[in-house]
Amino acid sequence: MSGFLGVLRRDLRLSFSGGGEVLTLVLFFIIVGAIVPFAIGPDRALLASIAPGIIWIAAFLAMLLGLDRLFRPDRDDGTLALYRMADMSMAGVVAAKVIAHWLTAALPLILASPFLAMILAMDGPTFWRTVLSLLLGTPALAAFGAFGAAITVAIRRGGLLAPILIAPLCVPVLIFGVGAIAPLGGPDQASSAMLFLAALSLMSLALSPFAAALAIDWGEE
Amino acid sequence: MIALGEHAEFIFAAYAGVFVGLGLLIGWIVYDSRRVRARLETLGDKRG
Amino acid sequence: MSIDDTPKMSWWNRLAHPGQFLAWTRPLIWPLAGVTTALYLLGLWFAFFNSPADYQMGDTVRIMYVHVPTAWLSQFVYAAMAVSALGTLVWRHPLADVSMKAAAPLGAAFTAMALFTGSMWGRPTWGTFWEWDGRMTSTLILLFIYLGIVALWRAFDDQLRAARVVAVFTLVGAVNVPIIKFSVDWWSTLHQPASVFRADGPTMPGSLLTPLFVMFFAFTLLFVTLQLLAMHTEIRRRRLVTLERRAARGDTL
């Protein structure tokens, strides 16, 4: 348990002190959201109807962008090799890193989402549903992302490969994430989407550390 | 050949596309096999 | 009477040895290719000369004879890859790596053909080449997964290490594919009225089933043949890499 907390603390400290990477990610998220009206036009009704999708896509892209720093710096400076020798299981390390990744790459985006909601003309209830669906759905994105980063960590030029591998697997998260906000099929459908989203997050959080640890162990051998 | 009705071009395109695709696939696999075997032979491998 | 107690190789062990596998399956290639060709010719004859038009779909039903087998293969090849991935991870079967690597581009090709024939069928039936219907959408995502796997194989230099990492990804993908299918179905019924024509709706009469079955076996046997050939090539390529390395070190061969 102390090893788990140690990994978590180390990752948090590194990403908050190391050159403002968290802020860059938040900035990316906001710019992607803010650039859409330039492509689509400033029609408030249209923007309001697609705003949940825009926020989800922006969060999705921002989280994929942050994947490369999950394991690669650790591998480059040898920390990953030390983790593998430690008596703590690799799955525990990955779980700590998934939580750290969520805290540094997802939570700041959710905190910044009111700004996007405002400029995209979202109304109050939709905004709160968006925050709730992001809170429920981003853990799954973090878990899948950690798996993708673990798969590609042994490849020297694997930076772009992880998003390509992970994006198809994340389709259900996007579907249920947006489905939980915009009740096209009525409120019943939205709340069932919310439940599916929570189930996806729980399942991927529980399984991905093991899969990622397996990939790291076998990729490094 | 029987008449294919009003949508003949789509039926024809589907079959042509699939068989061109299969041809390319078979061609690539056979080419790859030949190439690897030829290189093995130049290295003097006896097991084929 | 002497008892022969030398250890016999079981068929499993014999298959596990790449050289033995080559020797055993090489004679199969040409007969398989012959049967496949015959089945294709028979299937084409049935499809164009000896089967009626469907009373509902008309002549476009003939597209089904190439569409259904490729769509089946798009999923069957993934299942074969997932079983091979298990073989790599659990039994460390040396041929499982080879089979996994050979199957990935084949699966991608069949999936692309299924999408192509599906859209050729969709244009006259739905009036559009692409419809965001559950079946087509999840096939498209499956194609992306296949292409990702091919890209992952190519990104590694060391193929033994690649095999294990790809196996983990293939199995995670296998767990995910049903979830993706479910979510996409949920999503497409939400966005569309239920008027979309369902391909499996009307049951087919026997006269339409005959060409379908012949084509189905033709495509499946073609996959088996190509898979064997690609596996042979992969085994030889690994031997080639070893030999080239040895030659580069200056050893005598």
UniProtKB/TrEMBL annotation, chain A:
One of the record's GO cellular component terms: plasma membrane
Protein family according to the UniProt entry: Belongs to the CcmB/CycW/HelB family.
Record bears the keyword Signal: no
Localization: Cell inner membrane
Any Pfam family: CcmB
Source organism (scientific name): Devosia marina
A GO term for molecular function: heme transmembrane transporter activity
Role summary: Required for the export of heme to the periplasm for the biogenesis of c-type cytochromes.
Domain of life (superkingdom): Bacteria
Biological process annotations from GO: cytochrome c biosynthetic process; cytochrome complex assembly
NCBIfam families: ccmB (TIGR01190)
Membrane topology: Multi-pass membrane protein
Transmembrane regions: 21-40, 46-67, 88-111, 131-153, 160-182, 194-216
UniProt keywords, alphabetically: Cell inner membrane, Cell membrane, Cytochrome c-type biogenesis, Membrane, Transmembrane, Transmembrane helix, Transport
Primary site of residence: membrane
Protein name, entry field: Heme exporter protein B
TrEMBL record, chain B:
One GO BP: heme transport
GO cellular component, one term: plasma membrane
UniProt entry keywords in alphabetical sequence: Cell inner membrane, Cell membrane, Cytochrome c-type biogenesis, Membrane, Transmembrane, Transmembrane helix, Transport
Pfam families, per the entry: CcmD (PF04995)
Subcellular location: Cell inner membrane
Domain of life: Bacteria
Main location, first listed in the record: membrane
Ranges annotated as spanning the membrane: 12-31
UniProt-listed InterPro entries: Haem_export_protD_CcmD
Membrane topology classification: Single-pass membrane protein
Family: Belongs to the CcmD/CycX/HelD family.
Protein task: Required for the export of heme to the periplasm for the biogenesis of c-type cytochromes.
The protein's name in its UniProt record: Heme exporter protein D
Gene that this sequence comes from: ccmD
UniProtKB/TrEMBL annotation, chain C:
Regions that span the bilayer: 28-49, 69-91, 103-122, 134-153, 165-188, 208-230
Membrane topology: Multi-pass membrane protein
Localization annotation: Cell inner membrane; Membrane
GO molecular function terms noted in the UniProt entry: heme binding; heme transmembrane transporter activity
Residue ranges occupied by any Cytochrome c assembly protein domain in the UniProt entry: 32-191
GO cellular component, one term: plasma membrane
Main location: membrane
Alphabetized UniProt keyword annotations: Cell inner membrane, Cell membrane, Cytochrome c-type biogenesis, Membrane, Transmembrane, Transmembrane helix, Transport
A single GO BP: cytochrome complex assembly
PANTHER family assigned: CYTOCHROME B_B6 PROTEIN-RELATED, HEME EXPORTER PROTEIN C
Family, per entry: Belongs to the CcmC/CycZ/HelC family.
Protein purpose: Required for the export of heme to the periplasm for the biogenesis of c-type cytochromes.
Protein name: Heme exporter protein C
Organism of derivation: Devosia marina
